Amino acid sequence: MQFVKTEIGADPIVVEGYFSAPPCDVFRAWTDPDIVMKWFGPRPGSLHAAEIDLRRGGRWRFLETVDTGKTVGFEGEYLAIENDRRLVFTWSKFVARASGERESTPGSQVEIVLTPKGSGTDIRIVHSAIRDEPMRRGFAGGWEQGMINLCAILEKV
User: Fold this and answer.
1) What are the C-alpha distances in Å from 142 to residues 49, 55, 138?
2) CA of 107: how far to CAs of 50, 75, 150, in Å?
3) Shortest CA distance to 124 belongs to which of 110, 107, 105?
4) Which residues pair with 23 in a beta bridge?
5) Which residues make Cβ contacts (< 8 Å) with residue 131, sequence separation at least 6?
6) Residue 17 in 3-state DSSP?
7) How far apart are CA 60 and CA 71, in angstroms?
8) DSSP letter, residue 1
9) pLDDT tens across 38-87, in order?
């Protein structure tokens, strides 16, 4: 199954798919740090840490690479939360160096909508306002792999 529905490099990136799990399980997979750590990233278990303050204005942060020289991750702020139905949050990739120097991509926005379908869930993700085409290409590949990983995790729930 191909999850990314837009042409690679396009803005916004639209991701759609079906999971054979109820919306509450899919929502929890996005909002429970222990579950996020199992699927988010290029391969299951590739995160080193996940922090989630699930409230409007709350922050989230996923650390992908941590070594003595730098930390690479993603972070943002929750803009809207509708339990088991919808999440909207800002998104930025960052690199923090041991020297204190920090680089971040310009912020973008992700909206996730979960719709019950039979005993499972349709998901629609719109990742918008990514200013750089090479970055959009990279994120599209990341979304594709992440959804494959998430699908495998949800089959075990």
Assistant:
1) 18, 25, 6
2) 19, 9, 24
3) 110
4) none
5) 106, 108
6) strand
7) 15
8) -
9) 999 888 888 999 999 999 999 999 998 777 788 889 999 999 999 999 99
Other CB atoms within 10 A of residue 101 CB: 9
**What's the token pair of residue 72?**
């690479």
**CB 2, CB 112: distance < 8 Å:** no
What secondary structure, in 3-state letters, does 115-144 show?
Answer: EEECCEEEEEEEEECCCCHHHHHHHHHHHH
CB 120 within 8 A of CB 26: no
Helices (H), the chain: 23-31, 33-39, 133-156
Residue type, position 44, single letter: P
How many CB atoms sit inside 10 A of residue 151's CB? 18
pLDDT of residue 1 exceeding 70, the answer is no
Do residues 114 and 26 make contact, with C-beta atoms less than 8 angstroms apart?
yes
Which amino acid is residue 83, in one-letter code?
N
